[in-house]
Specification:
By secondary structure, the chain is mainly alpha-helical. It has one domain. It has six helices and no strands. α1 packs antiparallel against α2 and α2 crosses α5. The protein is elongated, with a radius of gyration of 17 Å.
Length: 113
């Protein structure tokens, strides 16, 4: 599921995902520019828009009547894109390094993930 989101983010860098946890470009890894970060995170917000609310929510235009956005594009930009751009990291945590999970065995961790 997250591989699709990862691909949306990596599209901003002009590279494709090489599998879970792996990113390789033509020139190897490079830091994200602010422009790439913005493009990728806005794409991430639009991907999440399809998961965050039901079809009925959009069909009944609740983003307008209930949340007060003027139209769908206003909702996408000022709700979903704003939400995504507020995130610093989306897939960079390592739960194994967390004290809460340090005592778990590899098998237990696989069942969690």
């Amino acid at each position: 599921m997250l591989e699709g989101v990862k691909s949306a983010l990596l599209g901003a860098k002009g590279v494709s995902s090489q599998g879970s946890g792996v990113v390789e470009g033509k020139e190897g890894y490079k830091e994200w520019s602010e422009e790439e970060r913005g493009v990728g995170l806005r794409a991430l917000g639009r991907v999440y828009a399809g998961w965050g609310f039901s079809q009925a929510f959009y069909r009944e235009r609740l983003h307008e009547s209930y949340l007060g956005f003027k139209d769908l594009e206003d909702f996408m930009v000022n709700f979903w894109e704003a939400w995504a751009c507020s995130k610093g990291r989306w897939n960079g945590c390592d739960n194994v390094k967390s004290p809460k999970y340090r005592e778990l065995t590899r098998g237990q961790i696989r069942r969690i993930c």
